[in-house]
Amino acid sequence: MSKYPITIEPFGEYAMLIKWPEEVKEPILEDMLQFGNFLEQNCLKKGKWELVPAYHTMAVIRRIPIEDSANLKRELLQWYENATKAELPERYLWKLPVCYDEEFAPDLKEVSDKLGLSSEEVINMHTSSTYTVYGLGFLPGFMYLGGLPDSLQIPRREHPRMKVDAGSVGLAGQQTGIYPQESPGGWNIIGNCPIPSFDAKKEPPSFIKTGDKVRFYEITEGEYQLFKLESEVGIHQIEKIKLDADS
Amino acid sequence: MLTVKKTGLYTSVQDLGRFGYRKLGVPASGAMDSYAASVANSLLENEEEDAVLEITMTGPTLVFEKSTYIAVSGAELSMKCNGEAIEKNTVHKIEAGDEISFGQLEHGFRSYLAVKGGFLTKKILDSRSFYFPVTEMGKIREHMQLPYDETLEFEPKISSVTTKGFYKENILKVSPGPEYAMLNDRQLETIFTKDFTIAKENNRMAYQLEEAIEGHNKSMLTSATLPGTIQFTPAGKLIILMRDGQTTGGYPRVLQLSSTAVSLLAQKKYGDHIRLRMH
Fewer CB atoms inside 10 Å of the end CB: C or N, chain B? Predict the structure, then answer.
């Protein structure tokens, strides 16, 4: 682990917030995930504590109130000092199918026009980048993905939709992502992923974790229907590649 | 089983909520007024994690099919058993076939009905708390049944309590949130002297406050939020996240409500007034 100048402050009665320098950078994310892994393995009892990492911060939440936050802060700082050999949790690169056909992509044409690209170019760029999951939040299973090419950055829709379909793949500012459930939303929708990213009946309910990576690949409508059916009956195998292979 | 004859405005099964799934974006959930839920549970000598019914504003009509004991705490909401008025904060014996209904809301917003041994609906991700889409539904539906165990005899140690003093308070205690330092003197002055009104936009996810204060243009990266986190929008609005609130957010978190204050706020409704005070 590299060492960053972290700060730790109480956050209400139940939590502390650890902050790394405020930047969207992989080494910061990785340092935070390594420390989180170290805490879960050596310091914080499962079931009594939970961690919420996102971008450059990690909340350390206790099930019951923290009695002595000054002491916990000292302990956390000490643990950070000690965590020199902490390892990253197991991480994967997930290959997720997206159908960019018109019926799933109500904004693809408008997005292409605004960006001065053809629809094919937008799809090519969207599927040729590797995205990093900087956090999960907002809705169960919603990924904050970093790594969108500059040429695909487009503001949110002026008028948000009251209903965006589950699985919708959107663009908004520097972000791209998938709506895990049907919800209102203002992102520009350019496709749909047939694999649900959240299923409360599964353990864990979301296969993707903060720190994982994602790549999208284009599928036809026929494949979309097939993959959807396969995941409904639980036989769809998502392609994944283990990251940080043992050196 | 208990059968839901009428649902009331928004009635859901709630316990202490989910723990350990926030890193996947799953909110904590659980009883909005956890104090009232624990009063109802303790009268019945239940475990603190036993599931209760959270009733919002107007109550349901429920028919009990097995003998048990119930207790209701929280809002000042009149209540009847087979048409006869009964008291809140009191243990009542229920016979098979009894019908519980609710009347006028006088004060507060949410009531908690506990049954001896708790409601035994299915646990999803270690909790019985309703939260759609983690659970199949967000609120109870007409004709649905809620399971509980039969209890024939129970001698409560305490048969009634009073909680009146707790709910008179309209001052919510806060501590500094992670972005507290961004507030200037004028904003601080307004926050701690203004009478704020609860906006129409209030539910299990968040309570918005009507009055805006001087805004800002600070942008930040998404970071963890908690029940009771006060988010500060660029337009100067204060949004207080509640039990079903999102687990992360991109608005500055200027203040954090104490857990007692979250319970108190859960009893406020559209048009009610509150003040914020530093611990």
Answer: C
